[in-house]
Amino acid sequence: MRCPSESTTTHSSPPPPPLHTLEVMRRVGLNRVFALVYTCGILALLYHHSLAFLHSTTVLSFSLTLSLLLSDVVLAFMWFTTLPFRMRPIRRRVFPENLTSVIKESQYPALDVFICTADPYKEPPMRVVNTALSVMAYDYPPEKVSVYVSDDGGSELTLFAFMEAAKFAAHWLPFCRMNRIEERCPDAYFRSNQAGVFEAERLKTKYEIMKEKVESVVDRGRVGEECITTEQEREAFNKWTAGFTCQDHPPVIQVLLESGNDKDEAGHEMPNLVYLSRQKSKTLPHNFKAGALNVLLRVSATMTNAPVVLTLDCDMYLNDSQTPLRVLCYLSDPFITPKLGYVQFPQRFHGINKNDIYASELKRLFQIHSMGMDGLECTSYVGTGCFFRRRIFFGGPATLVSPEIPELNPDYVVNKSIKSHAVLALAHQVASCNYESHTKWGSKMGFRYGSLVEDYYTGYRLQCEGWKSVLCHSDRAAFLGDAPINLDDLLNQTKRWSIGLLEVGFSKYCPLTFGTWSRGPLMGLGYAHYAFWSIWSIPITTYAFLPQLALLNGVSMFPKVSNPWFYLYVFLFVGAYGQDCLEFVLVGVTVQRWWNDQRMWMIRGVSSYLFGFIDFILKLFGISASGFNVTSKVVDDEQSKRYNQGIFEFGVPSPLFVPLATTALINLVSFLVGLIGVIRFRNMEEIFVQLFLSGFVMVNCWPIYEAMVLRTDKGRMLTKTTKISILLALTLYLSAALAFKI
Ligand SMILES: O=c1ccn([C@@H]2O[C@H](COP(=O)(O)OP(=O)(O)O[C@H]3O[C@H](CO)[C@@H](O)[C@H](O)[C@H]3O)[C@@H](O)[C@H]2O)c(=O)[nH]1
Ligand SMILES: [Mn+2]
Predict the structure, then answer these.
(1) Is 122 annotated as a binding residue?
(2) Among 152, 482, 488, 597, which one carries the catalytic annotation?
(3) If both were cysteines, with which of 147, 202, 479, 541 could 385 make a disulfide (CB 3.0 to 4.6 Å apart)?
(4) Residue 3 falls within a domain, yes or no?
(5) Is 455 a catalytic residue?
(6) Given pLDDT bands bounded at 50, 70 and 90, which one contains residue 4?
(7) DSSP states of 489-515 as a string?
(8) Is pLDDT at 625 greater than 90 in this prediction?
(9) Residues 477, 573 within the same domain
(10) How far, in Å, is the centroid of ligand 2 from the Cα of 241?
(11) Does residue 397 belong to any structural domain of this protein?
């Protein structure tokens, strides 16, 4: 039996054409040597701190060294947890053109696609519709595809949009097929150049009419009588009775297209399309997206029970119509390990500005680190663009955990129409909000509950059960999604992730212990890197304030330039930054984008990570209860214009901006005071490191100074935020002045 990591070309003779290959990155050897050298550097630094700590004579020097020691221990820990990403990074290739040698089209497995949406105002229904239409138009036998849309917003507006989409699909699908359109998302297609394509104009008009209709219904906030054309539609909308709210309503399941029954305008079969809004009750927890996905798993089991399942966020439209064939290269490889549980495509985004000022591409997370984890066969699930074997949700590879009713078993064969009374009755039953009580859903079955990052957590738990995974990286992005284009949204998203990750880190499933025990230390460390992502805030916040406050009080904290320990600092700094930059450049990212990424790392450090960390602790004590705050996908024209010009957006009152502005102020003042000191007393040697740190942070803070003083547009920092920050900076300065005098 061959593992997914082994190249198919090594197989017995005569070798069949390969379905997939992999190549270990050439830098592995260098990475390992560097890791060894860098570890020695870190140990030396910790030794240096320990000596200073033992020899500290005053309360001040004691607390300063303790802070540095703590920060550097955290930095060392975070560095150490990146080792798994660097030990065996790999790059894979697939050859869908060779599929015919192992599988006929009629044998392709059926595919259930899950699309989640949660709020028609933050996630415009037209966006969700575009995602659904793009996957319905896959290069895959349409009768094998079923698209299920889960609407946690329980909105008739979304249902209306999908009724319109079902009608439009009858034209769109044959149009894509006949013209071999590569861009299967209508919105993206009509924004691009369609010159010379037969009937493109006719389709565009149809699309525009649908769009206008849906958008006007969304603007009005309700589906008017004039929009309802059939009795069937009326019956569906009648479910929105007076007491129907998004937090309290019965399940709504509407079959909009049934394969076998509904044909497109060329007479071909269409995929199934099902709208689903699970039952909600204010008194029962609904477990956010994980809860929605589990209902999708069950409802789809009662209707089609496809052996392969794809999860998609509502904004992640299909960009490469061959994607499912690429997945088949793994899933239908007769030699692949039966433990292969999922094939993940990296998250990629459209509409990112030239230099990616907010580092929204998250290259490190979605590509660099994922390639490393892929080498260990345990790349994580990132919530969207992931194809699972349905079996994976029912226990480890060797132990099937049976669901409560046989119809939910992964190998159960459905042989009734999805519109039949029996199927619909069962579907409604499994979509009810108390269905899960006293079952294993969320703990041993399905997507796992207990973390706001259900994707990371579920992937990790599946890995611990023994499942393996593959990262499928293609040049043309498989899916493209929206990245937040406003700083507040982005920081709030990172904050939500930080909380969710800590929930895993501090649970009994902590990757350092449980993960290491189940799948070995490397996987444990790799997952721990993310579980403890937000403790970056400890060193980042310390280094953003402490040396600067010390400098303002004339206290030197680091070795002089002439001291040999100084060179250790230089090595550690240049080594870490240099390696990071090199890794970005090697995956084709420009240095400018890397620079912006490290800036965002600092920004997140003093805002999202810090706030997430604090929120998590408050949550532990039951003081706060943060939920899944959906990221807005609505684009404001003015904001989008500023974003495209590469200008930061600070124009909303957000507590997350206060520490940013405070950091900017303290560093500016300390740099100036330090510089004056150097000019007047020529004591550069002693304070060089502190001066350098202030200057470095200052350069990174440039957009913040601009937003505070130089800009006049609506995205500038609110005066209130600036005032609060000045007050906070003054308080910090005065308390430090007092502390340094003790
Ligand atoms: O109660 C909820 C909350 C969210 N969603 C859906 O979850 C998806 C992701 O939400 P979004 O606000 O876009 O969050 P992001 O932070 O951008 O998403 C990333 O992080 C999430 C975990 O925090 C993962 O679920 C996502 O797949 C991953 O792309 C969207 O389609 C939502 O409609 C639900 O279905 N129900
Ligand atoms: Mn998103």
Answers:
(1) yes
(2) 152
(3) 479
(4) no
(5) yes
(6) very low
(7) HHHHHHHHHHHHHHHHHTSTT-IIIII
(8) no
(9) yes
(10) 31
(11) no
Q: What b-and-e string marks burial along 64-89, b requiring 16 or more CB atoms within 10 Å of the CB?
A: bbebbbebbbbbbbbbbbbbbbbbbb
Q: Are residues 369 and 416 in the same domain?
A: no
Question: How many domains are contained in the chain?
Answer: 2
Instruction: Report the Cα 35 to chain-centroid distance in Å.
Output: 28
pLDDT for the residue 12: 54
Whether residues 345 and 243 share a domain: the answer is no
Of 394, 423, 439, the residue at which a domain comes to its end is 439
Rounded distance from Cα 453 to ligand 1 centre (Å): 9
Instruction: For the beta carbon of residue 6, count every other beta carbon within 10 angstroms.
Output: 15
Q: Which ligand is nearest to the CA of 497?
A: 1
User: Region 421-439: what's the mean pLDDT?
Assistant: 96
Pocket test residue of 279, 370, 630, 631 for ligand 1, highest count of atoms within 8 A of CB: 630
Classified as helix, coil or strand, 614 is: helix
**Full domain range(s) for residue 693:** 16-106+320-383+440-742
Residues 636 and 676 grouped into a single domain = yes
Q: Indicate if ipTM > 0.95.
A: yes
**Is residue 481 within 6 Å of ligand 1 at its C-beta?**
no
* 116 pocket-lining for ligand 1 (C-beta < 6 Å): yes
Do residues 96 and 127 share a domain? Answer: no
CA of 312 to the centre of ligand 1 (A): 9
Residue 123 annotated as lining a ligand binding site: yes
Digit-coded pLDDT (tens) for 340-390:
999 999 999 999 999 999 999 999 999 999 999 999 999 999 999 999 999
Measuring CA to CA, which residue among 546, 693, 568 is closest to residue 61?
546
Which region among 178-182, 545-549, 658-662 has the lowest average model confidence (pLDDT)? 178-182
The percentage of residues in the chain with a pLDDT greater than 90, rounded to a whole number, is: 87
User: Is 489 marked within a binding site?
Assistant: no
Question: Same structural domain for residues 57 and 136?
Answer: no
Tell me, using a 6 A CB cutoff, whether residue 431 lines ligand 1.
Answer: no
* Annotated catalytic residue 489: no
The average pLDDT across 280-308 equals 97
Residue with the nearest Cα to atom 13 of ligand 1?
631
Q: Which helix (H) or strand (E) holds 138?
A: none
Q: Is position 419 annotated in a ligand binding site? A: no
Q: Order the strands of the 111-117 sheet from edge to edge.
A: 252-257, 272-277, 145-151, 111-117, 308-313, 386-389, 340-344, 468-471
Task: Provide the mean pLDDT of the chain.
Answer: 94
Ligand 1 center–CA 118 separation, angstroms: 8
Q: Do the Cβ atoms of 316 and 7 come closer than 8 Å?
A: no
